[in-house]
Design a protein that fits this description.
This protein is an alpha/beta fold and 461 residues long. Helices cover 29% and strands 27% of the residues. It has 13 helices and 23 strands. The chain has a five-stranded mixed barrel with strand order 2-3-4-5-6. It has a five-stranded antiparallel sheet with strand order 19-20-23-22-21, sandwiched between helices. Strand 22 and strand 23 form a beta hairpin. It is globular and about 65 Å long. The relative contact order is 0.11. GO terms for molecular function: flavin adenine dinucleotide binding; NAD(P)H dehydrogenase (quinone) activity. Keywords: FAD, Flavoprotein, Nucleotide-binding. The active site is at 446 (proton acceptor).
Length: 461
C-alpha cells in the first residue's frame, strides 16, 4: 500500500467540473491530485459532449445532402460508413485529450487513473489498474464523478445487454431497427441522428410528452420535428418486458393505455434517466448525506454534510438546478480567496444539441405562472427569421417571458438554428439588467439569428 505525500485537495472525477477546478487551483499555487476512473477528460470528452456533437453533425450533413436540390446542389446518396465515422470520432477525442494533457499543470496536480474512495473525511484511497492501492491525506475533497445512464427495472432488459452512450460509439454498422428508451434531450438527439443515418428509429417514453420540463409549445415543436424526420414516437408508453439480445434481435412488450402490443427491433439504446456516480466511493462510510436519488446534498457553497467534502456538477443536489458545471468550479474557488460566489440566485443556461438546437435561460412561462408572477409572453416562429430561410432551417421558435410591470426579461427559450449563441446573448442582457426594450432597439448584425431579437422583443416590449 503506497502512501503519497499530503496534498491540499483531491478531486474525484476528471470531467469538465473536476478538470476546471483542478487547473484553477493549480494557478492559485495549490498542490493536489485528480483521480479519474476511466480516462483523462471524463465522460464529457470521451463519451458524451464531443462524440455526441460529431454524431449530430454527421447526421445533419447526411440530411443536407439528401435535400440539397433545394439550394441548387444535386441530391446524392448520403450513405454513411458508421465504422469510419466512429473511427474519426475516436481520433478527434484522442487529439483533444492530447491537447488538454499538454496543458495540464502536472507540476501542481498529479493525474491518477484509478478508482478513488474515501476511507476517512481527509483520506482517499485509489485502486489502480495493476491491482495496487495508494492512499493520500488531504485537506479538502471535491467530488465531481458525474452521472451515468440508469437501467430501468424492466424484466429482461439487463439480460438483453442494451446499448448505452458509452457502447454506442463502438458500433460498426447503422442499426437497422433501433429502439431508444427515454425521450430525454439526449434520446431525441440520438433518434434524429440515427434516423438521418438510415436507421428505422422508435423513441419510447412513459411520459405524455417529450421535454416535459419545458413549455408545451417547445415540447410540441420537438415532437413534430421528430416525426417529420421519420422517428416513430411512442409517448405515454410503458415497456413491460424485453426478450432477445440487442444487436441480434429483441422483442419489447409495450403498454399504451389499455392497449398492449409487441415491437421487434435489432438494437436497444438507453437514453432516459441518469443516476449519480456516488456508489462505492465511500461517501456513506464517512457520513456524507445523499438525497433520495443518490445525489450529494450540498449548501450554497457546495459543501456537503461533512466538513472538507464538497460536490460539483451532476452529483450535487443543487439548491438551484441547471447547467452549472463550469460555474461550480468558480463557487469552489471562493474557498481559496477568489471573489465570494455561491449557487444562490444564479440564473443558469441550458442547451440541448437536438437539431435544430434548443436552449433556455431563466424562467419558462409555466414556471413563472406557477410562481404567481404576472408576465407577458412574446413568441416568434423561426420562419420569420431571414437566417433560418438562408440555412433552410425553418423549424422552431423563439419565446421571451417578460415581467408585466417593467418589461424585465425573466426568461428566454429558443428552438432553432444558433439557439445556444442567441440564448447566450440574452443571458448577457439579463445579467446586465437590460429591459426587453433595449434589445428591441439594439442594431444587430444581419443576417444572423440574433437579429430576430429586435422583432421578438419589439412585439412585446
Amino acid at each position: 500500500m503506497g502512501m503519497l505525500p499530503p496534498v491540499e485537495f483531491v478531486v474525484l472525477g476528471g470531467g469538465l467540473a473536476g478538470r476546471r477546478l483542478a487547473c484553477d487551483l493549480a494557478r492559485l499555487g495549490q498542490q493536489g491530485i485528480l483521480i479519474e476512473y476511466h480516462a483523462f477528460g471524463g465522460a464529457t470528452l470521451n463519451v458524451a459532449c464531443l462524440p455526441d456533437a460529431m454524431l449530430v453533425r454527421a447526421a445533419r450533413i447526411a440530411r443536407q445532402i439528401r435535400r440539397g436540390e433545394g439550394c441548387g446542389v444535386g441530391q446524392g446518396d448520403a450513405g454513411v460508413d458508421l465504422g469510419r465515422l466512429f473511427s474519426a470520432v475516436g481520433a478527434t477525442v484522442s487529439a483533444a485529450r492530447s491537447h488538454d494533457l499538454a496543458l495540464w499543470p502536472a507540476d501542481r496536480v498529479e493525474l491518477v487513473i484509478g478508482q478513488g474512495r474515501l476511507i476517512e473525511p481527509d483520506r482517499v484511497e485509489v485502486a489502480l489498474a495493476d491491482g495496487t492501492f495508494r492512499r493520500v491525506r488531504t485537506r479538502r475533497v471535491f467530488v465531481a464523478t458525474g452521472t451515468t445512464v440508469a437501467t430501468p427495472d424492466i424484466p429482461g432488459l439487463s439480460g438483453a445487454c442494451p446499448l448505452t452512450p458509452r457502447e454506442l460509439f463502438r458500433l460498426t454498422r447503422v442499426p437497422p431497427q433501433l429502439v431508444i428508451l427515454g425521450a430525454s434531450f439526449g434520446g431525441m438527439a440520438y433518434a434524429q441522428a440515427f434516423a438521418a443515418l438510415g436507421a428505422e428509429v422508435t423513441l419510447i417514453d412513459e411520459h405524455e410528452r417529450v421535454a416535459r420540463f419545458e413549455d408545451a409549445v417547445f415540447s410540441d415543436a420537438l415532437a413534430q420535428q421528430l416525426r417529420h424526420e421519420g422517428v416513430r414516437l411512442l409517448t405515454s408508453t410503458r415497456v413491460s418486458g424485453v426478450s432477445g439480445l440487442s444487436g441480434e434481435g429483441v422483442t419489447l412488450s409495450l403498454e399504451q393505455g389499455r392497449q398492449q402490443f409487441e415491437l421487434d427491433a435489432s438494437d436497444i439504446l438507453l437514453a432516459g434517466a441518469r443516476q449519480p456516480l456516488t456508489r462505492n466511493i465511500g461517501l456513506e462510510a464517512v457520513g456524507v448525506r445523499l438525497d433520495a436519488h443518490g445525489c450529494i446534498v450540498v449548501d450554497e457553497t457546495l459543501k456537503s454534510s461533512v466538513d472538507g467534502i464538497y460536490a460539483l456538477g451532476d452529483v450535487a443536489a443543487y439548491p438551484t438546478p441547471g447547467h452549472a458545471v463550469s460555474d461550480d468550479a468558480r463557487v469552489a474557488l471562493s474557498l481559496y480567496g477568489a471573489p465570494p460566489r455561491t449557487t444562490a440566485g444564479r440564473v443558469l443556461p441550458r442547451i440541448a444539441f437536438v437539431d435544430p438546437e434548443y436552449a433556455r435561460i431563466g424562467l419558462s412561462e409555466a414556471e413563472a405562472r406557477q410562481a404567481g408572477i404576472a408576465v407577458r409572453v412574446c413568441r416568434l416562429p423561426m420562419h420569420a427569421v431571414t437566417r433560418a430561410w438562408s440555412e433552410g432551417e425553418l423549424g422552431g421558435l423563439m419565446q421571451a417571458v417578460l415581467a408585466e410591470d417593467d418589461g424585465r426579461i425573466l426568461g428566454f427559450a429558443m428552438l432553432g438554428i444558433g439557439a445556444g449563441d442567441v440564448t447566450s446573448a440574452v443571458q448577457v442582457a439579463m445579467h446586465a439588467g437590460l429591459p426587453a426594450a433595449a434589445l428591441a432597439e439594439l442594431p444587430l448584425a444581419h443576417p444572423t439569428a440574433a437579429e430576430a431579437l429586435n422583432v421578438l422583443f419589439g412585439s412585446g416590449a
